[in-house]
Amino acid sequence: MSVWRCPVCGGIFTEDSRSLVCAKRHTFDRARSGYVNLLPVNHKRTKDPGDNALMVQARRRFLSKGYYKPLSDALCRIVCGYMPENGILLDAGCGEGYYTKNVCSALETARKTAEVYGVDIAKCAVDAAAKSCRSADFSVASIFHLPLGNGICDVMMSLFAPYCGDEFRRVIKTGGKMILVIPGEEHLMGLKRAVYDNPYKNQVQDYKLDGFNFLGAEPVKDEIFLDNAEDIQSLFSMTPYYYKTGREEHRRLEALRELKTEISFIILQYEKEV
Predict the structure, then answer these.
(1) Cα(152)–Cα(83) distance, rounded to whole angstroms?
(2) Segments in the chain below pLDDT 50
(3) CB 3.0–4.6 Å: which of 14, 93, 122, 240 could bond 51 by disulfide?
């Protein structure tokens, strides 16, 4: 029996090797790469919502070089510390699955048996995740309408994705853990200084969230050096800045052949209130 729930009626699925079928016979076939598309048309605002193929490919190229390994290592350690034996982990907004795959490997190394699931609204990202990480089960879906039952997740992680308080509270068990990753104030300031006339720091909001007890915030800071234009372009293309930047600033970026920049993240940890 699948942990996924029918996005049409909310019913429980039974599963064979190729499809998910609920009691009302709503049927969803698995793609060749293994993911299942549980995103109803009425949950789409555009034909292909979420990150486009350019952003997904840029992120895959960049992350594969290990530039954000300090964040991945810290995240894996924290997830393994919270994960109960035979627990369920959800990566809400999993993207192309870089962090999902690393967490799966860390759980295996720690000899912790767990079921791992990933959700993202971008079909091209989920397809890439399913191809790269066979240890997890992926679905195309909106994190504002998660196709999961109530109180099913022992741990949920969400990196750089919108915060969906009602849905996150619904799917996490009482006492379950939520791990959010947000950019720190100084994140990518070196990149901003190289491209913009008036670079600005990121604004970090209050950590308090309704329905959750705040357990702590772990900063992850480092400096990275990019010694080629391709990696610089990949970094820029995987950020929202790419689409909010004028032609002159794009020309400045294209002229760069090396870049030193800060990376700064905050790993926020919560427990769902009783």
Answers:
(1) 13
(2) none
(3) 122
